[in-house]
């Protein structure tokens, strides 16, 4: 490309660097010093257990001296923050690996500090739980990404998940077939989406309004039917069989990675395909180009012959199917029965993951995994005992998210036409 | 698309004034609102009837004796809605007026926090911000007002005032964090408010189980001590009714928000930023400052809802569930009120009535209170889409000068 541009008329390159990221790193260094040095652990070593029974190779337990490890980590973190500061001063953007490396070191130090004591921290368990708890978040985030990319704000993820959970439990119990339950979940998600699309696209109602109200409607409907119909007949209507874990031969025996990724239920394997599919379809197919065109500039899309409202209708329905499918994980993958308001705000966390991930399927998935990791960390550390009051441990992931969103993600820009109805004139 | 009508080249036929007035009423805003409520109640009736055991039983022999099923339907629906009415407006079975009117005061008591939290969320909407953080703002406000209320003895009147101010300030602070982060770093308010809800929840849970903070002395439950008498809102209509002075504060807050939005220059800036932040910036409005101020005010108003809960309704001490979902209900209230102060006021009272009546219906008829959520959300949906309601009832457009036949064709054509 550069050879084609005459340097004389090429626009001057303006690089915008911001101190926000560096300041955020600095805050994390202060947090690290405050936690690891300010509140040192009484016990001297931290043990990480890395193996599960079915692995090829049984990895030995990793035993780290708690205090020394955290001090080394603090020095590393400080160095990385200083490097970032120097780069910004030199008007250069700190590379992504710096942020990622910083996050990993911080996480490792935190785990070392928090798990200090005689009981080992089960690393595979931590990661398996992370994937498990992220599943509905990832499906919800994919639904949000597609819907918002095509220009319809999807606050109704929560409702889609809940509708999927409800109908999958009901249908899987009635038919005795989990796969029909999954299908029913997707259909329920489409129905919720259909209402969203009808009101937002045909009746031009504000999309945020429809989304919020749909959540309330689905919570009301499912809770009503649960109390009135499912609860009294729990054995015949709300007793689906859960999907079993399905270990993939060979792959599931790789230490750490195997049990985490390849010894899961069908729904989790479906998730891998959905994420890859959404990424590929959005950025490497004609369909994806059309979707993004409609979401960014519907008038231009219309001019070249794309039917804006039809594209929106179809894709919002697809988004609903994905979220509904993910909702089935609550009943068929996790609990084994529908419960009132069992999604408990997962749809809103998924929405946060969409924005955190800047409307990109891969980044949104990573954000959803981060939230899943945070939820699971609470459980795991709760078992081995945590050094600070448990409420503050529980709070930490949310505080970290706020700092990260304020410092690292910054001013995000969604699809330009999201939330605006398209009126052909 | 909804407001455009196909140009019709006929001269308008002369209309008499009363037909036109009647047409405006059924086709206009108020008529649509009433019809939306009717439609939502109809859907609710269908749900109640289809899940009623008696109805299901009689449906088995519908063709041999249809009257059984019809009367079962009537009984289930009429029973439910009369319980809803008697639980929220007036109880006909009471001995005297003083007892009969008690449900109406319960409605106003339930409406108190809903209105003021709705005002907070609605204010955010007018500036183009989506405040889902009502839960967190209510919790910190309740904690601050509650702490002053039971742990800081002060002379009578002053005590209430200090407690209210502490709560409102805490809510304002919690909302202000969101505004500050949005203005300074561009952090999206949806993420930050959701995250702050959890932070507040865990913070309050910690304080509630820490002796010397919020936990009642000598108790191991995560609950506070009862409020001191000097800090409790006085009952407005005597001790037999729950309605408390918080309702007066809420009326004052509604007047304030109305004045702020439609009579002050700050309100003009709010609305300008809400309509189009870029244009507002070009016009010389400090958009970031507006974001901060709006979120501070929004948090303060939602905080007042938390204050009214601890100093008015739940004065025997509170736990982490003190917000009772009001932070989320407030979003629906604000939407139903279309973010207009007096609209929110009316919407809050309507939802308060549903809440009061819903509990009565659950107790008397065994119908889950969740049906109220269904009816409420359907009302908001129908009101938000007037063309849909018009299509269902085959109503003409308001102010339409076409003959009904032409209007029907225009309606079909959409």
Commentary on this structure:
The complex is a heterodimer of chains A (425) and B (414). Chain A has a 3-stranded mixed sheet with strand order 2-1-3. Chain A has 16 helices and 5 strands. Chain A has 2 domains: 16-119, no CATH class; 127-369, no CATH class. With 425 residues, chain A is mainly α. Chain B is mainly α and 414 residues long. Chain B folds into 2 domains: 17-90 and 386-413, no CATH class; 99-356, ABC transporter involved in vitamin B12 uptake, BtuC (Orthogonal Bundle). Chain B has 18 helices and no strands. Chain B has helices at 17-27, 29-50, 53-59, 66-88, 97-100, 102-126, 134-151, 156-185, 189-208, 246-263, 265-275, 277-282, 287-313, 326-336, 341-365, 370-384, 386-393, 404-413. The longest helix of chain B has 30 residues, at 156-185. Mean pLDDT of chain B is 85; it is low at 1-13 and 401-407. At the A-B interface, helix 7, helix 14 and helix 16 of A face helix 8, helix 9, helix 14 and helix 16 of B.
> Which term fits the overall shape of chain A?
globular
Summarize the helix and strand pattern of chain A as letters: HEEHHEHHHHHEHEHHHHHHH
Q: Approximately how much beta-strand content do the residues of chain B carry?
A: under 5%
Determine the N-to-C terminus distance of chain B: 8 Å
Give the total of domains of chain A. 2
Q: What is the tally of helical segments of chain B? A: 18
SSE series of chain B: HHHHHHHHHHHHHHHHHH
Write down the domain tally of chain B. 2
CATH architecture term of the largest domain in chain B: Orthogonal Bundle
Low-pLDDT stretches of chain A are 1-8
Secondary-structure content class of chain B: mainly alpha
Low-confidence stretches of chain B: 1-13, 401-407
Q: Describe the biggest sheet of chain B?
A: none
Total strand segments of chain B: 0
Query: What is the highest CATH level, the class of the largest domain in chain B?
Result: Mainly Alpha
Strand fraction of chain A equals under 5%
Mean pLDDT of chain A: 84
Radius of gyration of chain B: 25 Å
Give a quick account of the main beta sheet of chain A: strands, pairing sense, barrel closure: 3 strands, mixed
């Amino acid at each position: 490309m550069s050879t084609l541009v005459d340097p004389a008329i090429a626009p001057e390159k303006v690089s915008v660097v911001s101190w926000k990221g560096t300041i955020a790193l600095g805050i994390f260094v202060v947090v690290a010093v405050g936690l690891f040095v300010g509140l040192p652990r009484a016990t001297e070593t931290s043990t990480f257990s890395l193996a599960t029974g079915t692995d090829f190779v049984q990895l030995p337990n990793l035993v780290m001296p708690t205090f020394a490890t955290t001090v080394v980590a603090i020095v590393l973190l400080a160095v990385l923050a200083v490097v970032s500061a120097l780069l910004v001063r030199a008007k250069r953007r700190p590379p992504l690996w710096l942020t990622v490396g910083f996050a990993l070191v911080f996480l490792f130090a935190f785990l070392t500090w928090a798990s200090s004591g005689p009981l080992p921290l089960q690393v595979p368990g931590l990661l398996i739980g992370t994937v498990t708890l992220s599943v509905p978040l990832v499906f919800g985030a994919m639904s949000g990404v597609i819907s918002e990319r095509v220009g319809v704000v999807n606050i109704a993820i929560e409702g889609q998940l809940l509708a999927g959970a409800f109908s999958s439990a009901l249908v899987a119990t009635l038919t005795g077939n989990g796969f029909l339950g999954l299908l029913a979940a997707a259909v329920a998600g489409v129905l919720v989406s259909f209402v969203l699309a009808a009101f937002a696209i045909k009746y031009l109602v504000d999309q945020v309004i429809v989304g919020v109200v749909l959540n309330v409607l689905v919570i009301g409907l499912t809770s009503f039917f649960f109390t009135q119909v499912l609860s009294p007949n729990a054995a015949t209507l709300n007793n689906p069989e859960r999907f079993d874990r399905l270990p993939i031969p060979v792959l599931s025996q790789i230490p750490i990675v195997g049990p985490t990724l390849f010894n899961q239920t069908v729904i989790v394997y479906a998730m891998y395909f959905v994420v890859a599919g959404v990424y590929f379809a959005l950025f490497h197919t004609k369909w994806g180009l059309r979707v993004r065109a409609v979401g960014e500039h519907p008038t231009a899309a219309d001019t070249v012959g794309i039917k804006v409202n039809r594209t929106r209708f179809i894709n919002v329905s697809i988004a609903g199917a994905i979220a509904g499918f993910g909702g089935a994980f609550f009943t068929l993958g996790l609990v084994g029965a529908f419960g009132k308001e069992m999604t408990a705000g997962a749809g809103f966390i998924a929405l946060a993951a969409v924005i955190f991930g800047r409307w990109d399927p891969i980044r949104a998935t990573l954000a959803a995994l981060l939230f899943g990791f945070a939820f699971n960390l609470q459980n795991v550390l709760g078992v081995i005992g945590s050094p600070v009051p448990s409420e503050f441990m529980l709070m930490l992931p949310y505080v970290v998210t706020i700092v990260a969103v304020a410092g690292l993600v910054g001013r995000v820009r969604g699809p330009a036409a999201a939330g605006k109805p398209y009126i052909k004139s | 698309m909804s407001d455009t009508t196909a140009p019709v080249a006929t001269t308008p036929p002369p209309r008499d004034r009363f037909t036109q007035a009647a047409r405006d009423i059924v086709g206009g805003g108020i008529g649509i609102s009433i019809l939306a409520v009717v439609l939502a109640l109809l859907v609710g009736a269908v749900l109640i009837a289809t899940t009623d055991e008696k109805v299901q039983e009689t449906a088995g022999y519908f063709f041999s004796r249809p009257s059984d099923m019809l009367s079962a339907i009537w009984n289930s629906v009429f029973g439910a809605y009369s319980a809803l009415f008697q639980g929220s407006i007036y109880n006909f079975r009471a001995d005297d007026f003083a007892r009969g009117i008690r449900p109406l005061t319960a409605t106003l008591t339930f409406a108190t926090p809903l209105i003021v939290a709705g005002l907070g969320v609605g204010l955010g909407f007018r500036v183009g911000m989506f405040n889902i953080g009502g839960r967190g703002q209510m919790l910190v406000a309740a904690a601050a007002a509650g702490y002053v209320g039971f742990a800081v003895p002060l002379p009578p009147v002053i005590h209430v005032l200090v407690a209210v101010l502490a709560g409102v300030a805490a809510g304002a602070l919690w909302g202000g964090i969101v505004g500050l982060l949005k203005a300074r770093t561009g952090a999206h308010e949806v993420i930050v408010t959701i995250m702050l809800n959890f932070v507040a929840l865990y913070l309050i849970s910690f304080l509630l189980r820490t002796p010397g903070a919020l936990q009642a002395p000598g108790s191991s439950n995560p609950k506070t001590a009862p409020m001191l008498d000097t800090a409790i809102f006085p009952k407005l209509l005597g001790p037999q009714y729950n309605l408390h002075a918080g309702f007066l504060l809420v009326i004052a807050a509604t007047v304030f928000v109305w004045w702020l939005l439609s009579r002050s220059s700050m309100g003009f800036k709010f609305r300008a930023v809400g309509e189009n932040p870029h244009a507002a910036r070009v016009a010389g409005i400090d958009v970031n400052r507006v974001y901060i101020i709006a979120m501070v005010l929004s948090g303060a108003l939602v905080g007042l809802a938390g204050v009214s809960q601890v100093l008015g309704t739940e004065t025997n001490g509170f736990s982490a569930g003190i917000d009772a979902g009001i932070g989320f209900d407030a979003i629906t209230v604000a939407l139903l009120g279309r973010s207009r102060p007096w609209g929110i006021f009316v919407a809050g009272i309507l939802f308060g009535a549903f809440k009061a009546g819903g509990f009565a219906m659950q107790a008397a008829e065994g119908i889950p209170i969740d049906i109220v959520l269904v009816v409420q959300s359907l009302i908001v949906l129908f009101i938000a889409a007037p063309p849909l309601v018009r299509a269902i009832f085959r109503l003409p457009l308001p102010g339409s000068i076409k003959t009904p036949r032409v209007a029907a064709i225009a309606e079909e054509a959409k």
